Amino acid sequence: MDYREKDSDRPVCLECGDEIMYGRTGRKFCSDSCKNRYHNRKYHYSRSVRLHVLGALDKNYSVLEKLLRLDIRSISLGDLAQMGYNKEFVTSYHKVGGHDEYRCFDIKYYCTSTRIFRIERVQEED
Ligand SMILES: [Zn+2]
Question: Could you tell me the pTM of the whole model?
Answer without folding.
Answer: 0.75
